[in-house]
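Proteins fold reproducibly. Take a tokenised chain:

. . .
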Amino acid sequence: MAQLGLFIIGAFAALFLVLAPPPAAAQMKMEGGHGAAHNQRGKPASAHGAHQADTRPTKIPEHLDVARTKFSEQAKFSVNVTSRLDPVTINKMHSWVLNLKNPDGKPVRDAKLDISGGMPMHGHGLSTAPRVTKNLGDGKYLIEGVRFNMAGWWELKIVIDSGHHKDNVTFNLILK
């Protein structure tokens, strides 16, 4: 009976060691820090920042903009995204069509687009690497390789480089 008790205590101790966060020095090494502390997003932390609370949102903002058409951050482009899968389904690969125009409404042709995103509340990115696979012409681009792996608030972030202008746009999605 005593051996069973020791076994159970040992099992719990091993589980604790596996689940406990690593010491700060090991954490810096895992995050690529060569003597410098890094926060969870891989950016250098200030001397005081290493002990600050996580700044991720804890809930979905009450008035979150979920529009599928909007101007880019610096209003250099009007951008519309439409999923080819309606409704957008969790854990299913799908594609989107991005329609890109200048502020005057003229199509932006031959732009370079970089697509990323993630879950602001969870602090992780997309589980796939979406990319433009085809220029559909007239300012439209096919984005393939999009998959959302859980319910919640997602961001789809797009960096746009038209050669003359560069800007960003973020689309918010709430998936159930």
Summary: The mean pLDDT is 80. The chain has two helices and nine strands. The beta strands are 69-71, 78-83, 94-101, 112-119, 124-125, 131-137, 140-146, 152-161, 166-175. The longest strand covers residues 152-161.
